[in-house]
Amino acid sequence: MAGEPQADCLFCKIVAGDVPATVVRETATTVAFRDINPQAPTHVLVIPRAHYADAASLAAAEPQIAADILREAAEVAALDKVDATGFRVVFNTGSGAGQTVFHAHAHVLGGRGLQWPPG
User: Fold this and answer.
1) What's the distance, CA 24 to chain centroid?
2) DSSP of 19-70, one letter per residue?
3) Residue 119, pLDDT above cutoff 90
4) Closest by alpha carbon to 82, among 28, 24, 31?
5) pLDDT tens column, 19-61
6) Active-site residue 103, yes or no?
7) Contact call for residues 111 and 80 (beta carbons, < 8 A)
8) Is omega for the bond preceding 118 within 30 degrees of 0, making it cis?
9) Strand, coil or helix: what is 78?
10) Which of 51, 103, 105, 107 is catalytic?
11) What pTM value is reported for the model?
12) Residue 84: pLDDT over 90
């Protein structure tokens, strides 16, 4: 069921503390942790504690939590001191867009030049 932890979800296991992660921030609704395969000097994932398969389903069901993720992305950027130089927030929705873990999450990327268009 949407919103409920899923036994086979890696990010639900991180939220539960069953899988270790380098957590940088936590709130009542979100957890932010360093990506294990960073694509930039700052590469942090911000996830909702509640399980939704992707950003679109999260935004439809829990728009306030979707907003919490964006607010936390800015906090992560400030924490890593990339807020002044620029950072990117990316939501990959669906396998065709590169989503590999089907638990909504935002990538916060910064600390190097980020090309446009992304590839």
Assistant:
1) 12
2) S---EEEE-SSEEEEE-SS-SSSEEEEEEESSB-SSHHHHHHH-HHHHHHHH
3) no
4) 24
5) 999 999 999 999 999 999 999 999 999 999 999 999 999 999 9
6) no
7) yes
8) no
9) helix
10) 105
11) 0.96
12) yes
